[in-house]
Amino acid sequence: MECKTYTLNKLKNYKFVVVISSHKGKIVLSRHKNRTTWETQGGHIETGENALEAAERELYEESGATIFTIMPAFDYCVCGKIGEANGIVFIAEIKEFGSIPDSEMEEIAFFDELPFNLTYPEITPVLFLEAQNIKKVLL
Predict the structure, then answer these.
(1) What is the SS3 string spanning 42-75?
(2) Is 84:77 a contact under the CB 8 Å cutoff?
(3) Distance (Å, rounded) from C-alpha 118 to C-alpha 125?
(4) For 13-64, what is each residue's pLDDT tens digit?
(5) pTM (2 decimals)?
(6) Structural domain boundaries, residue 52
(7) Long-range CB contacts (within 8 A, 24+) of 81-87
(8) Largest CB tally within 10 Å, which of 36, 82, 93, 109?
């Protein structure tokens, strides 16, 4: 599996959103109820949703974030044996959390850097590196 990044709005036919979120300078990652690994918030864009709506929904469902700022940052494509899937990466700063809704996620945790036990080790580090480059340009 390979993950490639592209400038925002370069790709089409988006299927996924990924949200790289932080809170008070810490990376916010979620843990699925059936896994011991950590992941960003995100998932499929549902029928009738645009990418921003999907990102906001996934951020809330998978972290409990209730007050946040969020912005699209760049496109990505994951290529593998089963084909390609395009998506958009969003960057979010979470100001306030509520409870995580009853969903597939068990908990969130805060990190200074990415942990080694990631759910998607071929994808997440690539996206974080690009997000760090984007943040430097924006500052």
Answers:
(1) EEECCCCCCHHHHHHHHHHHHHCEEEEEEEEEEE
(2) yes
(3) 9
(4) 899 999 999 999 999 999 999 999 999 999 999 999 999 999 999 999 999 9
(5) 0.93
(6) 2-138
(7) 81/1, 85/15, 85/16, 86/11, 86/12, 86/13, 86/14, 86/15, 86/16, 87/14, 87/15, 87/16, 87/17, 87/18, 87/42
(8) 93
